[in-house]
UniProtKB/TrEMBL annotation:
InterPro entries: AAA+_ATPase, P-loop_NTPase, SLFN_3-like_DNA/RNA_helicase. It comes from the Bacteria. It holds the Pfam family SLFN-g3_helicase. This is AAA+ ATPase domain-containing protein. It comes from Lactiplantibacillus fabifermentans DSM 21115.
Length: 398
């Protein structure tokens, strides 16, 4: 098996490295911006795609082109435009700002979290020309006083303050009720504004064959298939967490960017001491609040921690050791994965809402979404350990 070192933890490829589908998307996107930037109605360009299909790569490449044209000394239709790339994810924002330091056409101020940008545009009564939104499924769909967002939907507010909005949207990566999006929730915006849709369906992160990707997809819908084999992708199931961690350390020494990550099934309170993830004989601390400018997976000391969906979503790892916590169980009668909502420790994810109907199925979907995010982190290998004894035995029997 051959692997390559990664310079960053999500793939921001140059033009030569983009696939034909990605290059087609980039050109259609820039053409859409040209067509709609001077129209009376805001134009929406929506990019769909599962975890690992290269959405951020295209977004970053197109945004770099846009900013190069905006800041060009040569006259062109996009010269002098006021553009931003927005992401509601602290760790991804750090990666974008880090890359801005290496690209002459980019500035760190080009990259923003949504609430500060919305509040600033409102205060100054300004319109942005183009706003790119990565991980738009993380935008808030209700007020959040803690984050100083007082309106009801961040996407609506960004559309009101922009001439063109380009958004990446994947309902399978929604992780909290306060930002809960269903596929149908986008429809009112598509009915209201001129738009174009593009779907990326080629898996770029997980190098495993179609059987490997299908196994993960089926697992995150509750189904168990026979364990797939692929000489180019290292997929292993462990009876204990310690040997899994030992192998992750070995992989990190060989190719870097190999980390332990887990479902949010272990207690954790921000700024209240050290909290631990246990996986059989293994006990490691949860990731700590990261106040540095370096993303979690790029810091060497995090090899001795366990990452969460909030530190790893959107990033590439070379190898991922995934701990499935107590909320992820197994029902022998139906031979299906079951979710025990009372054992899921991410209370922030389940803050109740009264506008979504029955919450139990939505909460179950959020947990499955988090598993999908975790299992699709590793480019070259996925290692699994299940805390639930029944699930662990069933996985080992595969």
């Amino acid at each position: 098996m051959t692997t390559t070192l990664s310079a960053a933890t999500f793939k921001l490829a140059d033009q030569a490295a983009l696939s034909p589908a990605q290059q087609q998307l980039e050109q259609r996107l820039l053409s859409f911006i040209h067509t709609h930037k001077d129209q009376p109605e805001t134009g929406l360009f929506v990019i769909h795609g599962d975890a690992g299909t290269g959405k951020s790569a295209v977004l970053a490449a197109a945004f770099s082109q846009l900013q190069a044209l905006s800041r060009s000394q040569n006259a062109n239709p996009l010269q002098g435009t006021n553009n931003y790339l927005v992401v509601n994810h602290n760790e991804m924002l750090k990666i974008y700002k880090r890359l801005a330091g290496d690209a002459p056409e980019l500035r760190k101020k080009d990259f923003q979290k949504p609430t500060p940008l919305i509040n600033r545009l409102n205060k100054t009564d300004q319109l942005a020309d183009v706003v790119f939104i990565d991980e738009a499924h993380l935008l808030l769909t209700q007020p959040d006083r803690y984050n100083k967002f007082n309106a009801h939907n961040q996407l609506q507010e960004l559309i009101k303050r922009s001439r063109v909005v380009v958004l990446v949207f994947d309902t399978r990566q929604v992780l909290k009720l306060k930002s809960y999006w269903q596929a149908s929730d986008l429809q009112p915006f598509l009915d209201r504004y001129p738009h174009e849709l593009f779907n990326l369906d080629e898996q770029f992160r997980v190098t495993g064959n179609a059987d490997v990707v299908n196994w993960i997809d089926q697992f995150t819908q509750g189904h168990l298939l026979p364990k797939p084999t692929d000489d180019q992708f290292d997929f292993q199931i462990f009876a204990d967490g310690q040997p899994m961690y030992d192998l992750i350390r070995q992989r990190d020494q060989q190719v870097q960017l190999s980390r332990m990550i887990a479902t949010a099934d272990f207690p954790y309170v921000v700024n209240h001491g050290t909290w631990y993830v246990t996986a059989g004989s293994l006990k490691l601390p949860w990731d700590k609040v990261n106040l540095t400018d370096d993303p979690w997976a790029l810091r060497p000391e995090t090899l001795d921690e366990v990452g969460s969906i909030y530190t790893i979503q959107g990033f590439d790892l070379n190898y991922a050791g995934v701990v499935l916590g107590p909320s992820v169980g197994y029902d022998a009668a139906t031979d299906r994965i079951v979710i025990h909502l009372d054992r899921y420790e991410d209370q922030e994810a389940f803050k109740n809402r009264d506008d979504l109907g029955a919450l139990s199925p939505l909460k179950t979907q959020i947990v499955f979404n988090s598993i999908n995010v975790l299992m699709k982190r590793g480019r070259y290998g996925l290692y699994l350990y299940a805390v639930d004894p029944a699930l662990r035995q069933r996985l080992l029997a595969l």
